[in-house]
Amino acid sequence: TDFTPGTKILDVTDPANDDNGPGNYAYPTASDFHAGAFDILDFQVILSPDKSTTTFKLQVRDLSPTFGSPLGAQLVDVYVHDPNAASGNTSTAASFPQRNYTIATSAAWSRLLEVQGFGQRYIDAHGTTLGTITISANAISRFITFSVPTSTLGAQLPGSGWGFTVVLTGQDGFSPDLARGFTPTPGQFTFGVCAVTSTNPHCTVDPNTVPKAMDVITPPGVSQSNELDYTLHNPVTLQDVVIP
Length: 244
Hints:
Shape: globular
Largest sheet: 6 strands, antiparallel
Number of strands: 15
Number of helices: 1
Structural class: mainly beta
Distance between the termini: 28 Å
Radius of gyration: 17 Å
Mean pLDDT: 97
């Protein structure tokens, strides 16, 4: 079992087998990488019974340990939109410019939680570190669970109108932006922009310009294949899922 007590204030599912970004991305070829490692199935936000802790749970299709860590392949970003935050204290920037996407103005974030097998970042929109994220991973339930003190998220309790932009990609501790890089087709340890060489416009772009997002959770009416399509959108702009 993988039970987190408290009140579930958000629970959204994401389609299986869409762990290919805009539809053309491919996994690295090394045997370290397991099918489904970058495929989001479910995302939950839970307030603890005394409301002092807010827990985020992200379920993936495969959570086999990788590179010696329970979540050694994954890099999870959760950009938190607090509708009560002052506009001067929000950002639409990605965690690092090299991620090659931006956050929608309506989803501008005041907190970013970044969780990976070998590190973490918990910052406000000015880049100030806010403390430590408590992280665990369960290979059986395939949930990555991470929590912070609720008081650090904002002045008020998370609730209706709060939004979360959720991005899953590969982690790479040796990369300047901590995210795994792309090559035109997959390498042993790089994602492929496309599985095979092709003249399709999706496959001929500079691999350093594509959004580093293998899977995202989109709001109703938004398709991931469109949202992440860098041939249609410049920059690629990600939207949040909102607590009703």
